[in-house]
Amino acid sequence: MSETSEKTASGKKGVVVAGGGQAGFQVAASLRLGGYGGPLTIVAQEPRLPYQRPPLSKTYIKTDAAFDSLLLKPESFYEKNAISVQAGEAVAAIDRRAGAVRLTNGENLAYDHLVLAVGASNRVLPIPGHALAGVHQLRTAEEAERLRAGLAGSARVVIVGGGFIGLEVAAALRALEKRVTVVEAADRLMGRTVSRQVSGFFLAEHRRMGIEIRLGSAVAAVLGEDRVRAVRLADGEELPADLVLIAAGVTPNDRLAAEAGLATDNGILVDHHMATADPQIFAIGDCAAFHSPFADRIVRLESVQNAVDQAKLVAERIIAGDAAGAIPPYRAVPWFWSDQGPFKLQIVGLTAGADHVEMASLGEAGKLVAYCFKGERLLGIETVNRPGEHMLGRRLLAEDLVVARAEVAREGFDLKAHVAALKRQG
């Protein structure tokens, strides 16, 4: 790299944040809130200020909401807090020895600390026709706006992928009276995320909404000349389509870190303070792979909660400086949500790997609570339209409160009373 920017009068080169999503925004905001006084720059690849992504697959695509409604903070916030946002640029390379990054426009920025909040990218399926007009992906506001514009002349929609995004969009478009078909290669919906019991509940409810669900179906090609007209399945069947959304998951953006010699494994590997092998460089959010005590393994989580909590920890770590060793390791309870039509799915803990699921008998249509165990250990709780149990579950895991399988299976088990009893005993 060529000569980099000089230190400020305070002697600090400051913090450079690579990524303008939820994690990047939060670490910058938390640094200023915590009293950090050095230079602070967010390098945001999209030509927009940081904004919320969750509404993109729900309200944003089915309404004429303005982009400003998504903003995490208005432009005045960044001006007031002396946070420089270089929108429409990205970090192209890291020079660890010099303590500097090179941007895509050729500019070099020196740093005392670099925070990689570079997120993830949509997985592109290597199928013929995926680049035809009318074939969409959904991760950015620009992609959501293109999808929204394409809906005007589209009656038949095929969604490839039965995960959170695919099902959220399916429910949103069905509310617009579109004919929606979801094609999922696995044998159930949300297979990597929820229990079979909860998966089965959503399969039935989406079909009740009028959404066609094809399980165990692989896509062989997207058909059309200039524009999509159909999706061909591996068995040869063709599904007519005016618009196609490919929602086949994401892959972490860890190449930048790998090229800089940092360890990666389905994400950028970090320690219990979100630091990479280079103590001046951190990774947070969708791109970070870390050891979770709730799974007892290395995980990479894609959630607003994870991005926010990791960002706050890194800000605290940077501000603490030499005293950072006294900061407790990252142990935020993971939780997630997905709004699919009238159903709010909330998950606390990491329930993948559960070998026993105990369903609470609620006697209420459209509501459920699933307790997910591995042996006798409660991994997490999945709920639908039961926010009270979700919040109690977060408390259970955060405070290491014990609930036995036998207790949950007991007729009339009351989670609220159980938690209260444990607190009295403790």
Give structural notes.
The protein is α/β, with parallel strands linked by helices and 426 residues long. The chain folds into three domains: 15-121 and 251-326, FAD/NAD(P)-binding domain (3-Layer(bba) Sandwich); 135-248, FAD/NAD(P)-binding domain (3-Layer(bba) Sandwich); 342-425, Enolase-like, domain 1, CATH 3.30.390.30. Helices cover 25% and strands 27% of the residues. The protein contains eleven helices and 26 strands. A five-stranded parallel beta sheet has the order 3-2-1-7-19, covered by helices on one side. Strands 9-16-10-11-12 form a five-stranded parallel beta sheet, covered by helices on one side. A hairpin with a 3-residue loop joins strand 13 and strand 14 (228-233). Helix 1 runs parallel beside helix 8. The longest helix has 17 residues, at 304-320. The chain is globular, with a radius of gyration of 23 Å. The termini are far apart. Residues 1-9 have low confidence and may be disordered.
* Overall pLDDT metric: 94
| CATH architecture title of the largest domain | 3-Layer(bba) Sandwich
Low-confidence stretches: 1-9
Largest sheet: 5 strands, parallel
What's the β-strand tally? Answer: 26
**CATH-defined superfamily of the largest domain:** FAD/NAD(P)-binding domain
Give the domain tally.
3
Q: Using only CA atoms, what is the Rg?
A: 23 Å
Q: What name is given to the CATH topology of the largest domain? A: FAD/NAD(P)-binding domain
The helix content is 25-40%
Please count the helical segments: 11
Overall morphology: globular
Can you identify the CATH class of the largest domain?
A: Alpha Beta
Strand content of the residues, in percent?
25-35%
Instruction: Note the gap between the termini.
Output: 58 Å
Q: What is the subunit arrangement here?
A: single chain
Strand order of the largest sheet: 3-2-1-7-19
